[in-house]
Design a protein that fits this description.
17% strand; Nucleotidyltransferase, domain 5; five-stranded mixed β-sheet; alpha/beta
C-alpha cells in the first residue's frame, strides 16, 4: 500500500508518503517523501504551545508540505483527472473553519488535477490540541473526498508505539527516504512506555493493536514537567533538551557545589501511575529558597530534576517488566529522545531482563511526525480494511483531544 499520512496534533505540521508491505508478520516501510515544519520557535515567547497560533500555522503549511511529500515521486501523473465536477459547496462544508486551508487547496486542485497513485489517507484524530487536530483532520477529509481514497483515522499514541518499526534507520539528510528493509519483529506480550509532553503511560500490548493501560500520569506528563522546570531555570523553549544538556554537563564535571534533594513522587506506590506536578513544585520552592541562580546552580538543579524524573520512569518500568515479563519493551514519545533515559533503560534491560528485547525509535521519529501515523494507519487497515472508506459528509468523524488507546 501507498499511504499519505498527516500529523497536526500539536506544534509540528507533517505530511509523509509511505510504501507499506508485509502485514503483521513482516511489516516493512519505505518513506517515499516527507515534509515537516516545526513551530517551536514561534511558540517560544509563550513558553509553551499557543493553540490558536498552532491552528493558524497548520493551515498555512499543510499544502506546501503536501507538495514536498509528493515531489519527485512521479505519482501526480499516475491517473487521469476527475476533478471537473468538484463543487465549491463541498469544500465549504468540510473546510468551514479552515478558510486559509480552503484557499490553498482550491488553488492546489486547480493546478494539480491528477490524482496521486495512493491507496489511502491516514491522519491523526487524537489525542492532542483539538484546534490543531481539526485542521489536519479536515485536510485529510478533503483529500479523501476529492481523490476518492479511503480515510484512516489514527490514534497519535499508537503512532508512537509503532515508531520503533523503522529498525533504527535514520532519515537521510534530505529527509526524503527512510527504509527498514530488514523487518523489525515485535514479540508479544510487549510492554510499551510512552513518554512525551502530554503523556506518561505504560501499556501492556498483548497482541497487534490490543492494549491494556497499566498506568498513566495523574497530573503533569514528564515532558511537560521538563518544560516547566526549564522555564523556572530561565531556559528557552522547548525546555527538555536544554535541561538534558545542562544535566549532562553537571554529570561530566561531577559537580556538587550545592546540595539539592528532590522527591521521587509515587516511586514506591503499589501501582503503575505517575505524578510530576509535585516534583515541579519542589523545584520551584528550592529555587525560591536559594535566590539568585548562577550557572553552576542551574546545571546541578537540571541534573537533580532529570535524575528524579527518570528514576521514577525506570522504577515503574522495572516493576511492570518484573510482573508481566514481556518479550519486547517498546519505547516511544518525544522524551524517549533523551540520551540519559535511553542509557538508563538499556542498562535496566541488559542487567535485569536480558531475555526482553528493547526497541527505540530514531530520535527523528521520537518527536511528532507523519511517518509513524502512516505506519499505524497501514496496520489498522490491514486488520479491518472494510472499516475504512472514502469520506462522505454524512459521516461523523471528529477530532478528540483526549482519545485513548
Amino acid at each position: 500500500m501507498r499511504i499519505l499520512a498527516i500529523e497536526t496534533s500539536c506544534d509540528e505540521t507533517a505530511v509523509s508518503l509511505l510504501e507499506c508491505s508485509g502485514g503483521f508478520s513482516n511489516p516493512i516501510f519505505s518513506v517515499l517523501g516527507t515534509g515537516l515544519f516545526s513551530q517551536a520557535h514561534l511558540h517560544e515567547k509563550y513558553g509553551g504551545v499557543f493553540p490558536a497560533l498552532a491552528k493558524r500555522e497548520h493551515q498555512k503549511n499543510l499544502v506546501p508540505l503536501l507538495k514536498v511529500a509528493l515531489k519527485d515521486t512521479a505519482l501526480l501523473e499516475a491517473k487521469p483527472p476527475r476533478l471537473g465536477g468538484l463543487a465549491s459547496k463541498d469544500l465549504d462544508s468540510i473546510l468551514e473553519q479552515e478558510p486559509e486551508l480552503k484557499r490553498q487547496l482550491v488553488e492546489y486542485f486547480s493546478e494539480n488535477s491528477n490524482i496521486p497513485n495512493i491507496d489511502a489517507v491516514a491522519v491523526t484524530q487524537g489525542p492532542g490540541l483539538e484546534p490543531a487536530l481539526w485542521v489536519g483532520l479536515n485536510f485529510a477529509k478533503t483529500l479523501s473526498f476529492v481523490w476518492q481514497k479511503p480515510l484512516i483515522p489514527v490514534n497519535h499514541m499508537e503512532g508512537h508505539v509503532f515508531s520503533v518499526l523503522t529498525n533504527g534507520k535514520e532519515i537521510s539528510n534530505d529527509k526524503s527516504q527512510i527504509s527498514n528493509k530488514e523487518s523489525v519483529t515485535i514479540e508479544f506480550p510487549a510492554l510499551a512506555l510512552l513518554v512525551s509532553g502530554g503523556h506518561t503511560e505504560l501499556q501492556l500490548v498483548r497482541d497487534w493493536l490490543s492494549y491494556e493501560r497499566l498506568g498513566e500520569t495523574r497530573d503533569d506528563a514528564i515532558g511537560e514537567a521538563f518544560d516547566k522546570v526549564a522555564r523556572l531555570l530561565g531556559l528557552p523553549y522547548p525546555g527538555g533538551p536544554e535541561i538534558s544538556k545542562l544535566a549532562s554537563i553537571a554529570r561530566a564535571e561531577n559537580s556538587n557545589t550545592y546540595t539539592i534533594t528532590l522527591p521521587r513522587p509515587m516511586i514506591k506506590s503499589n501501582d503503575y501511575d505517575f505524578s510530576y506536578a509535585g516534583l515541579k513544585t519542589a523545584v520551584l520552592y528550592a529555587i525560591k529558597e536559594h535566590g539568585d541562580m548562577d550557572d553552576t546552580y542551574k546545571k546541578e538543579m537540571a541534573r537533580a530534576f532529570e535524575d528524579a524524573a527518570i528514576d521514577v520512569v525506570c522504577a515503574k518500568s522495572e516493576k511492570a517488566l518484573a510482573e508481566y515479563l514481556p518479550k519486547t519493551f517498546i519505547t516511544g514519545g518525544g522524551v524517549i529522545g533523551n540520551t540519559y533515559l535511553r542509557e538508563r533503560l538499556t542498562t535496566l534491560i541488559q542487567t535485569k531482563f536480558p531475555e526482553t528485547k528493547i526497541l527505540f525509535p530514531t530520535r527523528e521519529l521520537s518527536t511528532d511526525n507523519a511517518v509513524m501515523i502512516g505506519m499505524a494507519g497501514y496496520l489498522r487497515y490491514e486488520k479491518t480494511p472494510h472499516t475504512y472508506g472514502v469520506y462522505n459528509q454524512s459521516q461523523t468523524l471528529a477530532a478528540s483531544g483526549t482519545l485513548r488507546l
